[in-house]
């Protein structure tokens, strides 16, 4: 026999004061394979050796499983092939953003966004080899400002 009673759910009005939930994913991308271009070139040039080919395959898997996710509250970096490692930075802690890239990344329309924060475990988060890094940095900046406004947080420089 099935129980047709509605299960209680937590609504926005039920949230404790000062606690906010993530509601939306704003952006998500994986690290581009262009970051491994030198490894692939070396594997092709030395393909008669077995090790470079296996190492290139390992780097391919490592890069394919490296993801960045921007939500309402956090910037999350997921890494790992078999064992996942998740590092996140609270957006209200972000202090500075910068954009750079290598020549190969620029040729393929990719680059890196460097996020400086007041986070103690990872004060610098490198978003590497993502498409259109300038647009990504603007999106992160806008999301940081919205997060700070929603939480009532202001940044002070000393």
TrEMBL record:
<feature type="transmembrane region" description="Helical">
    <location>
        <begin position="39"/>
        <end position="58"/>
    </location>
</feature>
<keyword id="KW-1133">Transmembrane helix</keyword>
<keyword id="KW-0472">Membrane</keyword>
<feature type="domain" description="YdbS-like PH">
    <location>
        <begin position="65"/>
        <end position="132"/>
    </location>
</feature>
<protein>
    <recommendedName>
        <fullName>YdbS-like PH domain-containing protein</fullName>
    </recommendedName>
</protein>
<feature type="compositionally biased region" description="Basic and acidic residues">
    <location>
        <begin position="9"/>
        <end position="28"/>
    </location>
</feature>
<feature type="region of interest" description="Disordered">
    <location>
        <begin position="1"/>
        <end position="28"/>
    </location>
</feature>
<keyword id="KW-0812">Transmembrane</keyword>
<dbReference type="InterPro" id="IPR005182">
    <property type="entry name" value="YdbS-like_PH"/>
</dbReference>
<dbReference type="Pfam" id="PF03703">
    <property type="entry name" value="bPH_2"/>
</dbReference>
């Amino acid at each position: 026999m099935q129980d047709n009673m509605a299960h209680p759910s937590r609504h926005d009005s039920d949230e404790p004061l000062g606690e906010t939930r993530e509601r939306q994913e704003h952006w998500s991308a994986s690290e581009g394979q262009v970051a491994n271009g030198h490894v692939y070139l070396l594997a092709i040039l030395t393909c008669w050796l077995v090790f470079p080919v296996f190492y290139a395959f390992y780097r391919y898997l490592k890069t394919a499983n490296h993801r960045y996710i921007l939500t309402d509250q956090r910037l999350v970096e997921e890494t790992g092939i078999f064992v996942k490692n998740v590092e996140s930075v609270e957006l209200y802690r972000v202090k500075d953003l910068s954009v750079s890239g290598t020549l190969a990344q620029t040729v393929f329309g990719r680059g890196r966004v460097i996020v400086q924060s007041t986070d103690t475990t990872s004060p610098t988060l490198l978003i590497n080899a993502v498409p259109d890094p300038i647009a990504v940095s603007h999106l992160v900046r806008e999301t940081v400002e919205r997060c700070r406004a929603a939480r009532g947080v202001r940044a002070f420089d000393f």
